[in-house]
Each structure stands twice: as structure tokens, then as C-alpha cells.
Amino acid sequence: MRAVGLTTLRGYRRMAVTSRLAIGASALLLLILASAAVSLSLGPVSIPASHVASIVLSSLGFDAVGFGNTERLVIEQIRLPRILVGTVVGVALGVAGATMQGLFRNPMADPGIIGVSAGGALGAVVAIATGMAGLFFLALPTLAFIGAMAASFLVYGIAAVGGRFSMATLLLAGVAVNAFLGAIVSAIIILLPDNEALREILFWLAGGLDSRSWEHVRISAPLILGGAAVILLMARDLNLLMLGDDEARSMGVRVGMARVALLAAASLVTGAAVAVSGTIAFVGLVTPHILRLLIGPDHRVLIPMSALGGAVFVTMADTVARTIIQPAEFRVGILTAFVGAPFFILLLIRNKRQVQSL
Amino acid sequence: MNGDRPQALSAEGLSYSVETQTLLDSVHLHAEQGRFVGLIGPNGAGKSTLLRALSGMLRHQHGAVLLEGTDLRSMSSRDVAASMALVSQIAPYTHGFTSFELVLMGRYPHLGRFQIEGREDNRIARDAMRQTDTERFADRTLDTLSGGERQRVFVSRALAQQPRILLLDEPTSNLDVFHQLKVLDLVRQLVNEGLTAIAAIHDLHMAARYCDRLVLLSDGGVLAEGRPEEVLTPEAIESAFGVRCAVYPDPITGTLAISLIGPADVHASPAEEVPAIARGVEP
């Protein structure tokens, strides 16, 4: 199956980076636009496609009529920001997943490996448990972001103890910090007297995009797009790093600098995503992996494609999540795990040989 | 050997140790431009460590490596890579990259951060693959190639780097005799065109045949250094490898041939046997 995939795409892999990117990116962009269009019209208030088109046109400043004011509000203030948050979160998870898998030279690596998700969860839980989240709208994303960054710095700090940075220690430190922060979160949940806050925490931990506003887009998009741009500029360094530190160094890569920059950008991006959406599982793991099988491991193509692929995955999953059990809503984080976990098991079985050799 | 050739790469008193183990012990080495220098010596003598030190990979070494007179430590890794390439002994895991993609990576030190490979880079990579006879694997991923095929692809990548100095760690260890000769002929030809090559070579006969100078390493130090016939004496080989042997000009190729007689430890057979053969007398 894999061999067939490679033969059909052999012509693709032989193309220049720019052509590969143009073809792949246009395909995924079309998918994003299509899924956004579907997502905009679906929901408790069903809005016909023609109305959606008119509303989008009129928001862009064109003269368009034929829609109700409620429809316009639903699209502009509820569905569009939600789709945009889903898009940037998907970009973040896809890019960070591809970066982590490259840095760890392991297709099983996930953005959460460096403690960002656990740190973000702790920040969010603190915001909810102390009641700050209710008082001040941005308290939750801000604390979640601070928690995510602090956790990843802690993990790097442990990996860099003694002046010699080691990726193996980083991995183990990530496991330990994740477990430790998870324990604190569990302790807070158990000790919490307030049932309403408890429900809110569980809700947040499942990861979701409900009631996201333009404010959420504004705080996350610049961080995510900025971090993704840094990673994209270092995509070639990442290619060489995959072959090993010595190989990369002998070809001129400043290994230490490149790795720190890539790790920092990946945690920034993931931290910003966690802050606005909670932990959406498996997107960062699965997206780069599927794309790598299709388009090869060259990060100059894989990074932007994982960005778009992650956006497709999250927005589609969210559309399903919020329409599948109407009028109630399913959490997107549950849905991605529901699809992602079986896929992960499949990967484990397929890559058994590879994993054993690590 | 005329002394007016500039020094391409030299090591000045290189020492390196890990914990209490001394891997390199004040090694001096001088490679003149347009020469092929062979590093020989038993397992663990320090050949790979010396190559790593010469390529600037060891961080806590003592002494200096001078690349065309400039201390390696004062150069950026990019500038070093633009003038010097390394083919490692242990080919890394390649994660599904195709041969051509890997060879193209050799262009890294010549490209700016915002640049992507152009037509010229593609041509250089294709040429490099043609030189090692690997063109027909261009679109295959490296994990589908044999050890020897992979090794030649990695030599191509080093060539695509267009270095003035080429470091090779056992470049022929996985190759069949045909490709051993092809690869070493290629290095020899590039050296004749002005490249400087330093290679760790296991096979003493091949080392003698292709190199201008040999450096015999033992226990991290230089035991002998000079032209092949100066270095490859039965005494030096016995002292470095613990093997008794005869060295004589190969009647067919004219280069030095080495016949291994046996390990030197146990009761040696009559000593006069060796010099007789070494003079080229047929037994």
C-alpha cells in the first residue's frame, strides 16, 4: 500500500519545492474553503448556501442582499470566529506536530510531549477554580498560555542541566512534568467544592471551540502565524537535523541554535492554541504523519501542508462535533481523539519495526 | 614531495579525552592542498575521532585545527561546511528521504535562509550522483538501498557540497571490489584536480595504492607518517596491529602489497622468513 502511494507520487516528489507546495497547498486550501462553507451554513439555525455567500460578500464590502439580520449575526459573530479559531488552532497543532516529529526523529512525537498541554491545562484549571475566569474574559486564555510556556521552559531547563542538552532527557523530562502537572490538576478537581466550576474544568479539558469570539482570534492568530513562519524558515535545518546532530553540523547547521529556536517556536504555537481551545488531542500527531506518507519528509513542504492539513482536520471535526447531536454539542477534542486514537494504534502496528529499532 | 604546496588542513597538537579515556593524544597532521592522506590503524586507534575533530565536531578538544590557515573555532559552521565535507562511517537513518533529496541537502551551506535550490543546484546534485554511479537510485528512498548503495549516495552528497577538503571515514567499508575501486578512483581523480582528501581506510593495500601520504595511528597517537612505503613497514604494522606481515611491491599493480602472516603474540616462526619475502623474493 505504501509502495503504491510512493509510485503514484514519484512524479510529485521529483518536482521543485515551489511546485510541490503550490499543488499541495491549493488542494488543501480548497478543502478548507469547502469545509468552511459547509460549516458556515450548518447549525441550530440552518442558513442556505446562497445566504451564506451573500453575507460573506457583504462583509467584504460588496452590495449583497437576500439574508436576514439574525443570519448575518450568527455568521459574523458566532460561526466565522469559531471557524477561524479552529483554523489557527489546526495550523498550530499541525505545524508543532511536524516540528516535534522532526526534532525527535520519531513519527510518534506529539506537541504535548514538552509539557505544553499539561501546563496549559493547569493554567486554565487555576483560572476556573479561583473564579478569575468568570471575572475577566481573557483570564483563562492568558493563564493557560502562561502555564503552557512555563511548563515547556521547565522541561527544557531539565534537559539542559549541566550544559549538555539532550533530546532523550527532554523526552523523559516531558513525561515527568506531564505526570506531575496532571497530578496537580487532578488534585484541584478532587478538592474543588464547586460543581459548576468542576463541570467547566472537565469541559475545558476535553478541548472545544464553542463560543469562541473575534477576541480569541485576535490573541491567538498573531502568535501562531508568527511561530509557524519561524518554523517554516528553519524547515531545511529541520531536514538536516533529522539525519543526526553530527550530519547536520557537518553540513553547516548551527545545531544548538536551530534546535532551541524550533522548540521555542513550537511551544509558543502550541501554547497559543491550547490557550484558546483547550487540549485538542491527536491532531498534531496524525496530520503530519498522513501527509508525510503522501508527500515525503521534506519539511519545506511538510510544514506548510501540515499547517493546512491541521486546519482542515480541526474545522471539519468541529463542524461534525457541533452538528452531530443537535441541539446539544459534542466537544471537538473528544471527536479528534475518537478518530485519532484508532489511527494511532494503526500507526503503532505499521511502524512496529521502526519503533523497535529506536 | 615539494614543500611549496599550501596547507589545506592541519591539526596542531589535537588531544581529546572522554572521562579518563584518551582518544587522541597530541596529534599533529598536515594535509597539503591536492594530496590524498590516508589514516590507517587498528580498531580504536582514533581514526574516526580524528576525522570528527578535523571536521570541527568535537567541542572540548585541546589543540587547534586550521582550515587553510584559519582556526576552525573562529569560523561559522556554515563557512566550514562550504569548504569541507564529511562522509561518516555510520550512515544515519534517513526517514524516507529519496537519494536525490539527500544529495540536494549538500547544497545547504551554499544557500541563504530565504533561498531554495535552483537549476544550478539540481545540476550539481545530478552530477554528483553520476560520479558515484547512483543516478538510477535518484527517486528511491534510501531505506530501499543496500549498504553500499547508500554509502555511495552519501559520497555524492559530500561532492554536492563542492568542498575543497573532503573527509571520508571508511568510504569503502560496505562496497564490493568494483565500487571500492570506482570510489577511490573518483577521489583520486578529484585530488588530482586540486581537492584535498583525508580518508580513514581499513584496507592497507588500498591505502597504499591510492594515498600520497599515510598517517598510522595507534592508541590515539601518530605512530608513523609519510609516504606509503615509509609508513607501511613490517615493523610498524606489527607494532600497530600486532600482526606479522610481509610488504613487497605488487608484481601486477606496482603498488605495495601486504601479506599477513599471522598474529605476532605466540612463538614467532623464524624471523628471517619475513625480510626474504619483503625483498620481493618469491617463496
Derived from helix and strand composition plus strand pairing, the structural class of chain B reads alpha/beta
Coarse structural class of chain A: mainly alpha
CATH third-level topology of chain A: ABC transporter involved in vitamin B12 uptake, BtuC
Radius of gyration of chain A: 21 Å
How much helical structure, as a percent, in the residues of chain B? 25-40%
Mean pLDDT of chain A: 87
Mean pLDDT of chain B: 89
Give the N-terminus to C-terminus distance of chain B in angstroms: 34 Å
Q: Main sheet of chain B?
A: 6 strands, mixed
Written as H for each helix and E for each strand, in order along the chain, the element string of chain B is: EEEHEEHEHHHEHEHEEHHEEH
**Whole-angstrom Rg of chain B:** 20 Å
CATH superfamily of the largest domain in chain B: P-loop containing nucleotide triphosphate hydrolases
Please tally the helical runs of chain A, counting DSSP H or I stretches of 4 or more residues. 18
Return the domain count of chain A. Answer: 1
Can you walk through the features of this model?
The complex is a heterodimer of chains A (358) and B (283). In chain A, helix 5 (69-103) packs across helix 15 (283-295) and helix 6 packs parallel to helix 14 (255-277). In chain A, 77% of the residues lie in helices and 0% in strands. Chain A is mostly helical and 358 residues long. Chain A starts with a helix and ends with a helix. Chain A has helices at 2-8, 10-14, 17-41, 49-59, 69-103, 116-129, 132-135, 139-159, 167-191, 195-205, 214-233, 235-241, 245-250, 255-277, 283-295, 299-323, 332-350, 352-356. Chain A has one domain: ABC transporter involved in vitamin B12 uptake, BtuC (Orthogonal Bundle). Chain B has 283 residues and is an alpha/beta fold. Chain B has two domains: 7-232, P-loop containing nucleotide triphosphate hydrolases (Rossmann fold), CATH 3.40.50.300; 241-283, no CATH class. In chain B, 32% of the residues lie in helices and 28% in strands. Chain B is built from ten helices and twelve strands. In chain B, the strands form three sheets. A six-stranded mixed sheet of chain B has the order 6-7-8-3-9-10, with helices on both faces. In chain B, strands 2-1-4-5 form a four-stranded antiparallel sheet, with helices on one face. The longest helix of chain B has 16 residues, at 177-192. Chain B is globular, with a radius of gyration of 20 Å. Residues 279-283 of chain B have low confidence and may be disordered. Chain A binds chain B through residues 6, 10, 13-14, 16-18, 105, 233, 236, 239-240, 242-244, 246-247, 249-255, 292, 296-298, 300, 357, and chain B through 52, 55-57, 76-82, 85-86, 88, 92-98, 100-101, 105-106, 108-109, 111, 113-114, 116-117, 139, 141, 161.
